[in-house]
Specification:
By secondary structure, this protein is an all-beta fold. The chain contains no helices and eleven strands. The N and C termini lie far apart (38 Å).
Length: 117
């Protein structure tokens, strides 16, 4: 069973919105977040949220993206508004901490987000 399973993403025009979901295979204690990797670039943090709900965003997405988390559903969400072509990347879900009591740095399989101009 994959520890993190992502859904959402796809193709949208600039200015549009998309949402991403990521569900863990069990309860998560620690940070959950989203990273992205554009073609030819390094993977970068987009947003993360602690178990208690404290959030952190990359400057490039502040005011446009919102990360949230439902601990009862073991799920983290990323709502992306006012999308720009520069947001085009593969988005990866991440969990750092414990999933079902097992420590690790967990990654999802990645989901493509493409923003057309």
């Amino acid at each position: 069973q994959m520890p993190l399973v992502e859904s959402g993403g796809g193709l949208v025009q600039a200015g549009g919105s998309l949402s991403l979901n990521c569900t863990a295979s069990g309860s998560v204690f620690g940070n959950m977040g989203w990273y992205r990797q554009a073609l030819g670039k390094q993977r970068e943090l987009v947003a993360r949220i602690s178990s208690g709900g404290t959030t952190d965003y990359a400057d490039s997405v502040k005011g446009r993206f919102t990360i949230s988390r439902n601990n009862a559903k073991n799920t983290v969400y990323l709502q992306m508004n006012s999308l720009k072509p520069d947001d085009t990347a593969v988005y990866y879900c991440n969990a750092k901490g414990l999933i079902r009591g097992v420590p690790g740095d967990y990654w999802g399989q990645g989901t493509q987000v493409t923003v057309s101009s």
